[in-house]
Amino acid sequence: MLTSAVYAKTTVAFGYLTNRSGNPNFNYMEIIFPNSFASSIEAVYDCNVIKPLKLNELLEKKQLTLQRHYENHELPQITKTIGCDLFIFGYFIPLPDNTIKIVLTLYESGSNQIFTFTNIGRMETEIFKIIDRITLVLFDFFGKNGFFMSKPIMRGSSVGLITNLNPEELNIMYAEFFNAGYSVIAIQGNELDSYYAHENEIMNYFRYISTDANSYDIITDWSKFTMTLGIWEGKKKKEWQEDLRKVYEMYDLNYKVFKNTVLERYQNIYPRCDYLLFVVYNASRTSCWARAIDIKTKQLIFMHSNVVASGIKTDLQKTTRQLITIIQTPTALPQKSKKK
Amino acid sequence: MKKIFIVTLIVYISFLSCATKKGVVARKIAITPGSRIVVIANHTNNIKNVIIARFMSKNYSVKAFNASDLYTIEDVYDVKDFKKVAYMQPLKDDNMVSFEKAVENIYKLHIYNYELSKAEALSDMRTKYGTQYLILMELKDWQKVSWARAIDLTNMEVVWVENYPAQYKDTLETVVDHFIASMSK
Q1: Torsional sign, CA B10, B15, B18, B20
Q2: Other beta carbons less than 10 A from residue A200's beta carbon
Q3: Is the pTM of this model over 0.95?
Q4: Which of A233, A262, B71, B167 could crosslink A237 through cysteines, CB 3.0-4.6 Å?
């Protein structure tokens, strides 16, 4: 995302990291946090950064004020007003067990994509340790093709693999996971590929995964949804519109609730399955993207948008090996001296 | 010169065909003779009979289960209908993203649910038929790769996989025998 900034400098604007604890003693962190994230990003990536106070000044010139919170559907308008490519904001809550919960939202204008993640960690006495934890997530997402990892998927775990591979290829993939010390649960998802229209697209729908704590999604705004209604509409059309409203209420607004219910059933039916891993390969099987859900917590814990094996001659086996290496390797902060 | 070129071409083609017809085998446990199994192979009944006969001759207890009993295509709810509904109305750009997302979520839920339905059917195989392992198999001509896989129905784990590039001398029986030998090691 930010790597492209080398050619056309990306503008990253930071909103507040709102204190939702109700304790005003933590208010000072509302600006310290975003300022620190902004400085860290500025030190590594060649981009324009707008910090919260400056952003507020810019908005005041347009008779607006920087809000402490934005609803998703407000983001396209606010980023257009600011003229930024990325808008980052969030909130934090110090928790009773000496931990702190930080929820950060990254919105990319243009693509309408939104990435939200939750980080719960120790309420360190040194604030820079908390900042490092969050900065690591930001760096991964910006610098490694939308990479996110809240925890590694270690060997010995059981994974259910939902892919776009044919049965023969699936065996190759399974064998790689076996050899790397994983158990593979009999979930595959690829049978439906041939039954329906748009079979090439179906698996790609899993690119966007929305869970309670972490999400990678597209913003939709139902308030802007319009239908042509009038006295000329017959009863049948009105019924159809009502059905349509129900469909959207169920499958967009309440989709997460439905999905959580389904995942609850996965836990009962596949008690040995630790993670559901969605892996979609390109046609030549030389690259893939992946997402992982922890079945027990029902949270998105891993995503990578472009896994490519090194070397000249790559194939399904090598791409899968590369994916396995990535999912089991804990991520680390890059060197500050390298400007990307 | 022409001779060298032809030889090189033949070597290259053989190398290429070897590369595409790569064998793969991996196993977690051995499925020994005496195990209670269901074999699902997407073939005609006469070929299915040959496959089952090979397993029976090696002392496997093969349960009488036909994959086509699970469901017919008419039972599968066609999600396409929603897509059709979604596009009946002329759409503005703002509407389009919302439409697309809802339709995509329907497909996603469908895939999640399909896997659950499948698991329930597999669970029935274990509880109603007393099956320990499900063997999936697809046999192909000698130019192509035949594949097979075994699922332990007690924990739904895949326990054995093999891709076998059949040789010219192979017959239906020898390929099935090869798979049986491989999974029982």
Answers
A1: negative
A2: 10
A3: no
A4: A233
**Least confident among A78-92, A235-249, B49-63:** A235-249
What is the C-alpha to C-alpha distance for residues B18 and B165, in angstroms, rounded to an integer?
9
Q: In terms of residues, how long is chain A?
A: 340
- Chosen for mutation from A114, A165, A198, A220 (greatest number of chain B CBs closer than 10 Å) is A220
Check: CB of residue B177 under 8 Å from CB of residue B21: no
* Gap between the Cα atoms of B163 and B185, Å rounded: 16
**For residue A259, what is the nearest residue in chain B, using CA coordinates?**
B109
User: Looking at beta carbons, which residues of chain B come within 8 Å of A208?
Assistant: 104
Say whether the ipTM exceeds 0.90. Answer: no
Q: Do B114 and A178 touch (CB under 8 A)?
A: no
- Residue A56 CA, chain-centre distance (Å), reads 27
Residue at token pair 């010995």: A156
Section A77-100 average pLDDT: 90
In sequence order, which residues have a C-beta less than 8 Å from that of residue A318 and are 6 or more positions away? Answer: A309, A311
Q: Between A158, A174, A202, which is nearest B107 by CB?
A: A202
Q: What is the rounded distance in angstroms from the CA atom of residue A190 to the CA atom of residue A170?
A: 9
Alpha helices in chain A (DSSP H): 29-44, 52-60, 75-82, 127-143, 167-179, 199-202, 235-248, 255-269, 316-328
Residues of chain A positioned with their CB less than 8 A from the CB of B23: none
Q: In chain A, positions 101-120, which contact chain B (CB-CB < 8 Å)?
A: 112
**pLDDT value at A202 more than 50:** yes
